[in-house]
């Protein structure tokens, strides 16, 4: 996408306005973190999906901030889950937040399960949206390592083109805005994300699996509730997810049906999505 086209893109313009308004920077062990803090009320740590840039959710975050204090980090190219968790810890300390609800969409839902396993005490409710249980067996490490090898071997432009294609297939947005969203996605992949960001996507999850972090006993001390937002037309979700969540987390999962809003319901209909989130967080 050309620079002029980027300037004219309404999605990118809204993202930049959002970032200028509530974006903050923090350095943790020489790693620069960018995160967004907005709103007043009960605190929610929101972990975004595989696009790695929380500002893609500007519309729903602004609406949710009417009733909540929302903290939403971008993901830097760290290579272990411990580094990821240390970043979340530092952001929460910087914002003076000791107790919070925890939510994650898609890839962020996997990170949320890992973070809850590390820190069950401060978390009230867990909201998982368009994601799956992080109860991976060790065979999944091989798949992640294969992904890392492919990313490191292929030319960076080809890696980004493949990633844009796969993300585009599960992107549910208003049809009239699809071109702008697709162009914004491609622009961020091309100009902001690096090969290390893509490696990090696989490496952090591989580290979670290798460390045996997300196992049922990790959630025994947690006293909260879990809510799962699902869409019938989301290809990343499985009919067995709910029973697996309940076995993993050791409690009943409250299911909120998003109908056919797809994988990125958060982008498709922010008002309806926030309404469902507020039901879970009430």
Write up this protein.
The chain is of the alpha/beta class and 282 residues long. The chain has one domain (3-281): Rossmann fold (3-Layer(aba) Sandwich), CATH 3.40.50.1820. The protein is 48% helix and 17% strand. The protein has 12 helices and 8 strands. The chain has helices spanning 3-8, 10-22, 58-64, 81-94, 107-118, 139-153, 156-169, 178-191, 195-210, 241-249, 265-268, 270-281, and strands at 23-28, 31-38, 43-47, 69-73, 100-105, 123-129, 225-230, 253-257. Strands 1-2-4-3-5-6-7-8 form an 8-stranded mixed sheet, with helices on both faces. β5 (100-105), α5 and β6 form a beta-alpha-beta unit. α3 crosses α12, α6 runs antiparallel to α9 (195-210) and α7 (156-169) packs antiparallel against α8 (178-191). The model has no long low-confidence stretch (mean pLDDT 93).
In short:
This protein is an alpha/beta fold. 48% of the residues lie in helices and 17% in strands.
Task: Map the helices and strands.
Elements (H helix, E strand, L loop, with lengths): L2 H6 L1 H13 E6 L2 E8 L4 E5 L10 H7 L4 E5 L7 H14 L5 E6 L1 H12 L4 E7 L9 H15 L2 H14 L8 H14 L3 H16 L14 E6 L10 H9 L3 E5 L7 H4 L1 H12 L1
Parallel strand pairs: 3-4, 3-5, 5-6, 6-7, 7-8
Antiparallel strand pairs: 1-2, 2-4
Helix pairs in contact: 3-12, 6-9, 7-8
Instruction: Give the H and E element order.
Output: HHEEEHEHEHEHHHHEHEHH
Q: What is the residue-averaged pLDDT?
A: 93
Whole-angstrom Rg: 18 Å
Let me know the CATH homologous superfamily.
Alpha/Beta hydrolase fold, catalytic domain
Q: If classified by CATH, what would the architecture be? A: 3-Layer(aba) Sandwich
Q: What is the general shape? A: globular
Strand count, sense and barrel status of the largest sheet are: 8 strands, mixed
Give the strand order, joined by hyphens, for the main sheet: 1-2-4-3-5-6-7-8
Question: Which CATH class is shown?
Answer: Alpha Beta
Number of strands: 8
The CATH topology is what?
A: Rossmann fold
Structural class: alpha/beta
Q: Indicate the low-confidence ranges by residue numbers.
A: none
Helix share, percent: 40-55%
Distance between the termini: 42 Å
């Amino acid at each position: 996408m050309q620079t002029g086209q980027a300037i004219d893109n309404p999605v990118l313009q809204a993202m930049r306005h959002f970032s200028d308004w509530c974006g903050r920077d923090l350095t943790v062990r020489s790693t620069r973190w960018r995160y967004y803090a907005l709103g007043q009320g009960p605190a929610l740590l929101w972990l975004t999906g595989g696009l790695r840039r929380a500002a893609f959710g500007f519309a729903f975050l602004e609406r949710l901030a009417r009733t909540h204090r929302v903290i939403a980090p971008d993901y830097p190219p760290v290579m272990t889950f411990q580094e990821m968790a240390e970043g979340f810890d530092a952001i929460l300390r910087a914002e003076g937040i000791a107790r919070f609800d925890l939510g994650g969409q898609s890839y962020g839902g996997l990170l949320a399960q890992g973070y809850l396993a590390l820190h069950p005490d401060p978390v009230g409710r867990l909201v998982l949206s368009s994601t799956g249980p992080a109860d991976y067996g060790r065979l999944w490490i091989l798949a992640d390592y294969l992904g890392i090898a492919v990313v490191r071997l292929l030319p960076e432009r080809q890696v980004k083109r493949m990633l844009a294609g796969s993300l585009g297939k599960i992107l549910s947005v208003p049809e009239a805005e699809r071109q702008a969203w697709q162009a914004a996605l491609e622009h961020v992949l091309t100009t902001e994300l690096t090969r290390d960001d893509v490696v990090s996507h696989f490496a952090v999850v591989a580290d979670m699996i290798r460390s045996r972090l997300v196992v049922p006993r990790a959630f025994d001390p947690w006293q909260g509730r879990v809510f799962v937002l699902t869409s019938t037309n989301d290809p990343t979700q499985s009919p067995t997810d709910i029973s697996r969540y309940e076995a993993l987390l050791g409690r009943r999962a409250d299911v909120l049906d998003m109908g056919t809003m797809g994988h990125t319901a958060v982008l498709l209909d922010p008002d309806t999505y926030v309404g469902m989130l507020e039901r879970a967080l009430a």
